[in-house]
Amino acid sequence: MREEPYKQELRSIVGDAFFKDDAESLVTHSYDGTPMLQKLPDGVIYPKNTEQVSQIIKVLGKYGIPLISRGSGTNLCGGTVPVQGGIVMVMHRMNAILDVDMQNLTATVQPGIITKKFIEHIENLGLFYPPDPSSMAISTIGGNIAECSGGLRGLKYGTTKDYVIGLECVLASGEVLRTGGKLTKDVAGYDLTKLLIGSEGTLAVITEATLKLIPPPKYKKTMLAMFKDIYGAARTVSKIIENQIIPATLEFMDNPTIRVVEDFSKLGLPLDVAAILLIEQDGELEMVERDIAKMAEICKEELADRVSVASSQEEALKLLTARRSAFTALARLRPTTILEDATVPRSRIADMVLEINRIAQKHNVQICTFGHAGDGNLHPTATTDARDEEEIHRVEAAFEEIFEAAIRLGGTITGEHGVGMVKAPFLEWKVGSAGIEIMKNIKHAFDPQGLLNPGKIFAKETRRRVVIDHG
Amino acid sequence: MREEPYKQELRSIVGDAFFKDDAESLVTHSYDGTPMLQKLPDGVIYPKNTEQVSQIIKVLGKYGIPLISRGSGTNLCGGTVPVQGGIVMVMHRMNAILDVDMQNLTATVQPGIITKKFIEHIENLGLFYPPDPSSMAISTIGGNIAECSGGLRGLKYGTTKDYVIGLECVLASGEVLRTGGKLTKDVAGYDLTKLLIGSEGTLAVITEATLKLIPPPKYKKTMLAMFKDIYGAARTVSKIIENQIIPATLEFMDNPTIRVVEDFSKLGLPLDVAAILLIEQDGELEMVERDIAKMAEICKEELADRVSVASSQEEALKLLTARRSAFTALARLRPTTILEDATVPRSRIADMVLEINRIAQKHNVQICTFGHAGDGNLHPTATTDARDEEEIHRVEAAFEEIFEAAIRLGGTITGEHGVGMVKAPFLEWKVGSAGIEIMKNIKHAFDPQGLLNPGKIFAKETRRRVVIDHG
C-alpha cells in the first residue's frame, strides 16, 4: 500500500529519520503523564527548526490533520494525548539555549530544552530562573510554557507566566509570530505573550522563548514543622501570610503523604504527626533569620509538635527532594495515582483540607493531600486502581465534589496543571458560559480549522453541578 | 426636536442627572491627555454599577453606537478620544474600595478609584501596591488597567499587569464576565485577565478588579548621580543591572529636563551636568546599604561628577516628586508637549539616547529625554507648538525615526503608554502583519460589531518604514 500523501510530504520536510509511524512510536506517543487516557496518533514528527515547524503546519492544514505539539508529556491533564488522532510533534530536537544575556538578564531558548538542565546552566552563570515544577528533571521549557507550570517557588517568585517576556511561535497558518522581546515593558497591542502561556498548544506552536532571569537570593534557610492537628498546620499557612511574610516555599504534606515519602526517602520523618509544613525563606541574611524565627513562633502558637531548622544545605536539599518525590512515592502504593490541583485563596486552605477529607471519607476513597499551601494550591491525590471500574467511579465522584468545593471557596479547578481533557468538563464552573464562549472565540481567532491540539480545554458537555451533601 | 430614542433609553438607565449631551459636557470629553487630538462625542454617561454598564452596552449595541469607557483620561496615546463619536462612559461614580483582604493580601476595587487615593488607603493599612504611574494623583485604577500603566517602581516591582489577579468586566454582548480571583495561581483556560489588561477599552468594559498587594519594603535610600557625559549615565544603568542589582527606581533625566525640573521645583539641581540618575533601593537595611554603596562605586567608575545620597525621607520624596513633575515642568516651556515612550532592552539605553539626540538634531526639533532607564523605557519629549504646522511635521518625522530606532535596537514602540491612536500606524513595525491579523481576530472575537473604543490600536494604514539616514 502506498503511504498517504500527507505523510510523504511530512517525510520530505524532516527526512525519514524524523517521521515515525511504526507501532512502537505510535504507542509511546499515545499517552502522557495522566493516567487512564490513551489514543494512538497517526504519526510522530521531530522538527529541527522553526522553518520545519511552519512547513509541517502548512501540510497538516492543507489536509485537515490535527497537530499535537509536545515536550516530555509530563503534564497531568491529558494535555498531550492525541485524542482525535493526527500527528504528534515532539520538540526535543529544538533544545538549544540560544543566548544568555548578562546585561539584560534574559535567556533565549528553544522549547525542547529540559527545565532542570536549563536551570542548572543558568545557576552556573550565577543567575536564577525560579519556576520549578516537580517534573523539572524531565519536563521541557516549552511544555512549562504551554501549561504555565508552577512549582515550589511559585508563592514568592511567581510561575512560568511571570518569567516569559518574549515568544516566537508558528500560527495555524504557518506564519511565524514574534511577541515581546528582551523587554521588561511592552504594551504594543494585546499581550499575546501572556495569552499563549498556558494555552496548552491550542493556539500556536511555541518555537522559541525569551525568559527573564533574576539575581539569586543570597541566603536560604529551610525549616520543618510537625503538627498533630492538620488544621493547625493549615491555619499556620494563613497566619504566616497575614503576618506579611512571603516565604520562598511553604509546602504541606498530610500524614499519608508523609508515610510514603518517608518510606521512599528514609529521611527520618515522624510517622505519627497529622501534617508537616516544609518552609523555606531566602534573601538577605537578617531577613531570612527574622522570618524563620517569626514563622517558628507562629508554628508554636498553632501547637506544632516540633519545629526544626535544617542544619545544612544538604539536609535542606534532601527535604526538598523528598517533597518533590511525593508523586513518585505515592505512585508506588497502588496501580493508579490521580494527582489533582484544586486551588483556593490562601486563607481557605484549612477549609479546603477539611472538605477534601470529608469528601474522601464519604466516597470511601484514599486521598492524600500535599501541595503548595502558600499559594492555596493543593494536590489531593487519589491512589486507586484503574482496573476497578466501580472504585474509579467513586474517585471521579469525589474529585467532582472537590472541584465544586474549591469553586465554592473562591478557588479554581486548576492552579498549575492546566485544563486539557481532565478539567474540560469543569471549566464552565470557573469561567461561566460567557467565559467559555469568549475562549472559544479566541481559539477560533487563532485556529479557524480547529487542528491545534483539538479536544482540549473545551468539553462537549459541561459536567452538571454536583449537589454537595452536607450530611 | 425630539431626542433620539437611544438617548432616551440611556437616560432611563442612569437618570437625567447622569446622561449629558450639552455642549460643555461634549467638549470636555472630546480630548484626553494627548495633545492635538479631539473629537466630540454624542453624549457622556456616568454609570453607578455593573448592572447599568451592562444595560448601557446592550442599548448601544442595539443601535450600533460606539462606546468609549474612560477614567480621568490622563493617557498619552489618544486612548480615550471618541474619534468615531458615540458615547463616552466615565467610570468615576464607580470608585469604591470594595474589600481589602489582609489574609490573602488582596484588594478588590471599582475602576473609578483614583490611583493615589487607593495607594494611600493601602499604605495606611501597612501594605504596598507598587504601580505608580506619574499621573497617579489624577488617574484611575481602571484606566491604569486599560493601559497597563507602568511607573517609577516598574523596574523592581513590575507594572499593573503584575498586580491584577482578577477582573469583572462587561462584554460587548452585555454579559458579565469574571476572571481570576483572590488566587495567585489559576490556569483554568486562557488567561483572560492578562489579555484584558492593556487592551485599552477595545475588548470589554472593566467594572471591578482584584489586585495583589505585597508587604512594603522595610527601608529605602535615594541617591542622585550627576554626569558630565550623558553616555556615562546610560552606561551606568547597564552596569548596575549587569552587577545583578535591581534598584527600586533608576530614573534618567537629561540636561534640558534637569533645567525645567529645577526651574519648576527649586531643588538646587546642578544646571551644568549632562544627565542625572535618580536611584532608589528599598528592602532590608543591609541590602539597601550594600546596593547603594555598589551603585555609587559604579557611578564613579563611569565618571559621575557628583554622587549624593538623600539625607532624609523628606529630601528623597522631594527628588521623586521633582522627577514625577518632569512632564508638567516641560509643558511650561512651549505651547505643545509631546511625551513619547520608546523602549529598548536596558543594555541599549546609551545607544538609544545617542539616536534620539542625533534624530532631534537632524530634524531641528527640541527633544528632552527622561524616563525609567532601568527598564529601558525612555520618554523622549518634544516641546513644540501645535499651531506651527511645519514644525509639527518635523516633530512627527523625528518621532517616526525614534520608533524605528527603538525597533532596530530590539525595543518596542511603547513601553507603558499604549497604542491608542498615536502609535497605531507603527504597531505593525513591532508585531508584524501576522501579529496585527491575530490581534484583529481577537478584537473581533470580543467585539464583533466593533463598537468598543473604535479607531484605536489598529490603523487604517501602516506608516511606511522610514529609511534612516546615517549621514
UniProtKB/TrEMBL annotation, chains A, B:
SUPFAM superfamilies (UniProt xref): FAD-binding/transporter-associated domain-like, FAD-linked oxidases, C-terminal domain
Keyword Ribonucleoprotein carried by entry: no
Keyword rRNA-binding tagged: no
The entry's keywords: FAD, Flavoprotein, Oxidoreductase
Cited InterPro entries: FAD-bd_oxidored_4_C (IPR004113), FAD-bd_PCMH (IPR016166), FAD-bd_PCMH-like_sf (IPR036318), FAD-bd_PCMH_sub2 (IPR016169), FAD-linked_Oxase-like_C (IPR016164), FAD-linked_OxidoTrans_Type4 (IPR051914), Oxid_FAD_bind_N (IPR006094), Vanillyl_alc_oxidase_C-sub2 (IPR016171)
Cofactors that this protein relies on: FAD
Record's protein name: FAD-linked oxidase C-terminal domain-containing protein
